[in-house]
Amino acid sequence: MAPLKGAMRLVAVDASAAEAGLKMGLPLADARALVPALDAVAADPDADAHALAGLADWCQRYTPWTAVDGADGLWLDISGCAHLFGGEAALLTDLSERLAVLGLISRAAVADTPGAAWARARFSSTNAPHDGDKPWRVVAPGAMAKAMAGLPTAALRLDAVTLEGLSRMGVRRVSDLMALPRGPIAQRFGSGPLLRLDQALGVVEEPVSPRRPTLVLRTRMAFAEPIGTATDIACATARLLDALCRRLEEGHQGARRLILTCCRADGSIAEIRIGTSRASRDADHLARLFRDKLIDIDPGFGIDAMLLAAVEAEPLAPLQGGLGDVGSHDNGGENIARLLDRLVGRLGAGRVFALAPHESHMPEKAQRPASPLATAVKTAAPTLGFVANHESYAPTTPRPIHLLPMPERIEVMAPVPDHPPVIFRWRRHQHRVRHAEGPERIGPEWWLQQPEDLGREGTMTRDYYRIEDEAGQRFWVYREGLYRADMQPCWYLHGFFS
Amino acid sequence: MICPPSPFRPAFPGLRLEALRAHVRRLERQYGRVGATRPPLSTGAAAIDAALPWGGLPRGAVHEILAAAPTSPTFPMAHRRGSGLEASAAGFAAALLTDITQQPEATEAPLLWCRRGRDLYLPGLAAFGFDCRRLVVVRGDNDREILWAMEEGLRSGLPAAVIGEVSRLPATALRRLQLAAEGSGVLALLLRPAACHVTPGPVATRWRVAAAASEPRQLAQPWPALAQWRVELLRCRGGESGGSWLVKWRAEHERHNEQAHTGHALPPFAVASAGGTATDRLAVVATLCDGPNPAPTAPRQRYIG
């Protein structure tokens, strides 16, 4: 039930309610009057949409191309898939049986066009004449006009106003519309009805986007009995990987990102994703990356189908296998890539990185994380340009080995205007300065700043001092801003020398 | 004497010879006598190298570096976390590994640095002549992840060296690291914070490094010193421990200048008697305490049971 036209009304009824005479759109009060024991639940469109999207993903067991249609429908493009399930009719039977097991009442139809399938699924009655030897739900190729003719105009996915107008003209069935001249219809109702008709009949192409990008590099495996043990899942993954890697090899490609989808028996799915730092089609290596994550799969009541897809693939030249050991025929770089993949797989993306210099005077911006493999490869090959040798990394002025991510405030006693500190206190601990070197003045990057930021924290000149306390510990501290008689200067600790 | 558990009781007598050979190879690797395929890593100071039975740090072993507070009566809280004391240990590690990053044999091999914080600073590392292109930083959430990453790196045998910063180190984890390092011949360096509990275990060497105050000012030298440490050799497997040195990092241009201008003359504070040469990366400023026997000719046979 949901508030609609000023009253709580029923928006969906189940089979037993329909038998009792309840209909959609009936006010809740009337429904209660008819069936006092009515169990009404508030409608939750978001949850419905979520469940429908989940169902669309689940339907990927039949085809990679699935889409959600409105609030209550799904589209599956089964071009070239039906033979895997023993034909279109068998596929439909399998689908509706599985949905029935999940407790869902479904109507489905197969046709050449999305429009015709939509119409047949919703408006054909079960006692409609059989189409040759196939059940009523399968529209034979090219037989759309015949299949659509007997259906009401509502089967054309038209809005209420148009439907009202058409019925006032006496056009109740699709066949009536087909019989009329096109000109007057277009004049009166716009291109809508004719476009829908043409789309349903296949005269005009109807583009429908799949819910997820369809993947070419994809393998699937269905099980006669749902599997649930970790060993079975690992075995199945290995077989899927073998098949996928063969296809990658045929296409001279290597996978960068892979998704393993497990369709559970209860209609939900579980997904794991892995990434590699370098394109790979080595089934053993990929299996190892998956192995750590397979534990996370909750098989629930069992997994009855598994899909493996390479979301991202890159060209990878074919390699000649070694004569002696087949497993380790790759070069050193590849092996490092595998080690890094394992580390990333366990610790997470962004946890394994190289540090690359960045051209900035601001100390905190002078380095940034980079892809570890890129630098490793650069090292292996003669490098060009900026990072030619390690000297270009080395600064001309001393820099600390540990730089605090955020400079920390320190209490400082220092002679004005710009002398180094004499005593400073950091984290409740006092250090007496013995030696100091400085200042090294580092100006803000004014060319990157907005005018309104001027004078704010972090946009002021910094005077850096290298100081050594009595014990010998060396710090990097700075004073923010230039000396001003009316303002107490702020001091920060930014790093530690070794 | 406690003998190691004997692995030579195979079902088939033919395997016995193989098992013996493997065991001998492992022993040899462990004690660095023969069959050490790769030369040990020089610490950068001839005086310190001489105090080690291997003539440097052996690869395929775990070396532990403890950060320590500078000994000073005015240093109130010596053992605190996040006190910046770890910077000395990190600097010493970078100075040790500089050689490894510049060796042509390891051109492709990365250097894994497994740690927790985000404060490792590349310009500071590069000051030690450390080739940062080979550095791969692995950031773990806890000690367990760091130890796992270290072990994975050591087992693969691919990195030139694996450095890890861990505060809690169970004895089993240390043993695993040692086995992994021994199996692959990769150098493992453990950096421990100042406030850590020292795990007794099979480390080849254990050092304690603390920042030391700069010596009086020299012309044409950065002052305060870029890096000056008090280095103590706490433990040395098969050798004598107890050495303690005051060392100072010398930048490459300093080394070149000294060589070019004065032949071997080091700054007066680099004690020539301690065995310093003009090519040392680390100048030994003073030998605070010589090990009882700086250069034993043959390592004493010892077992860990």
Protein model, in words:
The complex is a heterodimer of chains A (498) and B (305). Chain A is α+β, with helices and mostly antiparallel strands and 498 residues long. Chain A has 14 helices and 16 strands. Chain B has 305 residues and is α/β, with parallel strands linked by helices. Chain B has helices at residues 14-31, 46-51, 86-102, 122-126, 143-156, 171-184, 252-262, and strands at 62-68, 111-115, 135-139, 161-165, 187-192, 205-211, 228-236, 244-249, 282-289. Chain B has a nine-stranded mixed beta sheet with strand order 3-2-4-5-1-6-7-8-9, sandwiched between helices. In chain B, β2 (111-115), α4 (122-126) and β3 (135-139) form a beta-alpha-beta unit. The radius of gyration of chain B is 20 Å and the shape is globular. The chains are: A alpha+beta (498), B alpha/beta (305). At the A-B interface, α13, β9, α14, β11 and β13 of A face α3, α4, β3 and α5 of B. β9 of chain A pairs antiparallel with β3 of chain B, so a sheet runs across the interface.
Structural key phrases:
heterodimer, A: 498 residues, alpha+beta, 6-stranded antiparallel beta barrel, 4-stranded antiparallel β-sheet, 14 helices, 16 strands, B: 305 residues, alpha/beta, 9-stranded mixed β-sheet, 7 helices, globular
